[in-house]
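Design a sequence for this backbone.
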């Protein structure tokens, strides 16, 4: 393992002022997004949509890395250029989502275990050959009646650590993504406790599986109440609790934390990131790795019509710029209105 090379890539992925575009929706997830805008989920439409984003020079100037679904990694633009080359030319690092999804976990009703370790080393070597420089694996943790269980968190933490070890051995930076979901009516205290327990167990497994923390990026949820919780939290409370939870559980050797948006509104995801960065100095860089919070606006603007490509690129550029400022703690609500 060349730890210096991995660390260089990880540092690039969390460059201040930039963040990661999570464009790695599986074919079934992009179906849900396309259904909302009335677009048929064909390979050509998926390609055309993502090509619009990767060719958006303004938006991409705030993007350090792009996470791809495997189809996209091997797809060519309409003119035959590999999509992965468009990302490199825009100055961003391409990466691959390599888990096979969260599946119901045997004997643990209501919980999931993420699959995909079988055959992973050989597949990742091919993905690296094609241009991937990092990978992503997402584990999902549910809060509910007597959930999450220790058994489910441990199994997911172990799989995340084995995945991360395989990545580092083949020369890819692992994005380690344990997501405590915001589905449900639980309060912020429940998310706080589940997030701390999950991160503690994840870093214990990473250590046991010999993963070098300097060569990884953490992609966690923020500490937020469930989306149906009657008591929603202020931006300040989310920022304060999130930073306290990470300081207690995430070693300083980790170069950066790149958050998922997880169903937060576009503006809430941006405001929370900016508020957290204002609580510095912090041991790690804090940035975004948003899917929905970066793409909802451009998807709506595009709506499957080629003549809307420029409008979609403008919508993407705006959200990318806002989140880039948030990664510096410099976002302000008035900037949204000005646009
Ligand atoms: P969201 O920002 O939409 O949660 O997506 C990020 C991601 O990559 C989930 O795995």
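Sequence:
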């Amino acid at each position: 393992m060349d730890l210096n090379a991995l660390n260089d890539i990880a540092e690039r992925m969390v460059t201040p002022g930039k963040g990661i575009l999570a464009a790695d929706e599986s074919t079934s997830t992009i179906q849900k997004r396309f259904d909302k805008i009335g677009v048929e989920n064909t390979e050509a439409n998926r390609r055309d949509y993502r090509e619009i984003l990767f060719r958006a020079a303004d938006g991409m100037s705030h993007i350090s890395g792009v996470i791809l679904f495997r189809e996209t990694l091997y797809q060519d633009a309409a003119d035959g250029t590999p999509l992965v080359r468009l990302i490199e030319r825009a100055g961003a690092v391409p990466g691959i989502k390599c888990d096979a999804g969260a599946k119901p976990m045997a004997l643990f009703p209501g919980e999931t275990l993420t699959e995909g370790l079988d055959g992973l080393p050989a597949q990742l070597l091919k993905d690296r050959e094609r241009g991937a420089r990092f990978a992503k694996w997402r584990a999902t943790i549910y809060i509910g009646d007597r959930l999450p269980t220790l058994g489910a968190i441990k199994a997911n933490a172990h799989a995340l650590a084995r995945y991360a070890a395989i990545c580092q051995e083949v020369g890819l930076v692992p994005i380690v993504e344990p997501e405590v979901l915001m589905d449900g009516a639980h309060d912020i205290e429940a998310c706080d406790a589940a997030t701390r327990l999950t991160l503690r167990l994840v870093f214990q497994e990473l250590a046991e599986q010999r993963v070098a923390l300097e060569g990884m990026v953490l992609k966690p949820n923020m500490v937020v109440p469930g989306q149906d919780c009657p008591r929603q939290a202020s931006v300040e409370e989310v920022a304060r609790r999130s930073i306290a939870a990470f300081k207690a559980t995430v070693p300083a050797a980790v170069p950066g934390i790149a958050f998922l948006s997880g169903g937060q509104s576009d503006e809430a995801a941006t405001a929370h990131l900016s508020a957290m960065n204002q609580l510095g100095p912090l041991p790690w860089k804090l940035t975004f790795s948003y899917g929905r919070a970066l793409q909802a606006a451009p998807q709506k603007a595009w709506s499957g019509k080629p003549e809307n490509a420029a409008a979609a690129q403008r919508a993407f550029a705006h959200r990318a710029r806002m989140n880039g400022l948030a990664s510096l703690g410099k976002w302000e609500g008035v900037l949204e209105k000005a646009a």
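The two ends are 46 Å apart (CA to CA).
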